[in-house]
Amino acid sequence: MTHPQTTEHIDAYAELARIDFSRTDVTTALARVADVARRGIPGADDVSVLLVGSEGVHTAAFTGPPSMIVDEWQYHRGHGPCLTAAAASLTVSVPDIAEDGRWPDWADHAVDAGMHSSVSVGLPLRASVSGALNLYARTPHAFDEDAVMLAETFAGYAAVALADAYLYDGPTDVVHPRTRSPLTFARFMEMPAAPTARWV
């Protein structure tokens, strides 16, 4: 008998595989990846996709207001787990946001927004664009290792969407921010990565 969670994973993969990135604009494709990730990754209550281009950083797709709020706070302060994941193309896990000491001011803001754990996966993109897939949960320790591995798979699909955007639309069409932030690409690329390995 197939485990229900395994079935959910298979369904999520199948739904991602049905997205024809060559026929879908990047904004719609990333929104679909975020939505499928929220529904398919155990523990995820809200999901966003962050992009950093030559004109700044913005949230390109999100499934609910909390992820947008928590993301944008990082843009204006210039630090946080999502930006760290994007800058170094690694996976940043925050099992208990309230107890995490790496970005204490961000943690307070995230908890106020109702989020208590997160995982951010850097997207392997072109040199001129970086990004991250961000998962948020309302409970601490919401993401086990299987959930993180699944998130990394979803991040790969998000990267495919962006690669196809470059191929079919050209690089100038990739970044369409809702609002520009003061964090420029040059400043972002100069940010030091938090002390970590693959798992931060």
TrEMBL record:
<dbReference type="InterPro" id="IPR003018">
    <property type="entry name" value="GAF"/>
</dbReference>
<dbReference type="Pfam" id="PF13185">
    <property type="entry name" value="GAF_2"/>
</dbReference>
<protein>
    <submittedName>
        <fullName>GAF domain-containing protein</fullName>
    </submittedName>
</protein>
<dbReference type="InterPro" id="IPR029016">
    <property type="entry name" value="GAF-like_dom_sf"/>
</dbReference>
<dbReference type="InterPro" id="IPR012074">
    <property type="entry name" value="GAF_ANTAR"/>
</dbReference>
<feature type="domain" description="GAF">
    <location>
        <begin position="25"/>
        <end position="172"/>
    </location>
</feature>
